[in-house]
Amino acid sequence: MRQLRTLVALAAVLGLSGAATGQPAVPPGLEGVRALLKAAQYPEAAEAARAWAADRPDDLRAAFYLGLALHKSKRHGEAVLLLERASGASARDFPEAAHAPHYLGWCRYYLGDLAGARSAFERHAGSFPDYDDTQYALGLIAYEEDRLPEAESRFRRALSILSAGDAAVNAKERAKNQARLGDVLLRRDRLAEAEGCYREAVRLWPTHGEAWSKLARVLDRQGRAAEADAARAEQARIRERSQPAEGAP
């Protein structure tokens, strides 16, 4: 569900060069790894970055890219130590270092280390307060830790940032933030507001099955059984369309 948002964030990182910091603009190994990441060939990017890092074991930029490629390959346990190393660098060492805490935060989150993830994301947010994915992540953590006022604030902040961007590009990202905001409001028994969030989520992303399911739940809570059944039916149609036909290879 995070694919588009993380690709947008990744594009920003991959656009950085080393020229401003006095480093070579194209260090050995960098362009090959970047090309594979841009093509979403994450296992191949990890192998290319591993070769680069093996050749230059003290190169924190190589460690960062290996950690990033492993994270994108969902190998978070391997990635986390590399990204912790890279997070100790500064932009003077290599320009992408400023974003290492963001990816470290996601690794820690997926490994169940919410406190560590929060620390990393807060560090990144301190430098990049308008990075919507970091605000979204902090909202998820606050929700899981039952800090609902902060979770609401974080999701609203992410939506505010996204509203200033390209509406066609970030519709799914806004839908996911709306659905998560709906979760917060539902837990706080603000049912009409939660319904509005879920309806906006499915308007922005009509095949967001999870949002249809949550819309059904909040309609049930309001005693609107027929509307809830219609929402569940739409979720079922989405699920059926997404499943391969029987006997398909």
Low-confidence stretches: none
Strand content: under 5%
At the fold tier of CATH, the topology name of the domain at 1-113 is Serine Threonine Protein Phosphatase 5, Tetratricopeptide repeat
How many strands, which pairing sense, and closed or not: the largest β-sheet? none
Global geometry:
elongated
What's the architecture of the domain at 1-113 in CATH terms?
Answer: Alpha Horseshoe
Average pLDDT confidence is: 90
Task: Explain the overall architecture.
The model has no long low-confidence stretch (mean pLDDT 90). The chain has 13 helices and no strands. It has 249 residues and is mainly alpha-helical. It has a domain of 113 residues: Serine Threonine Protein Phosphatase 5, Tetratricopeptide repeat.
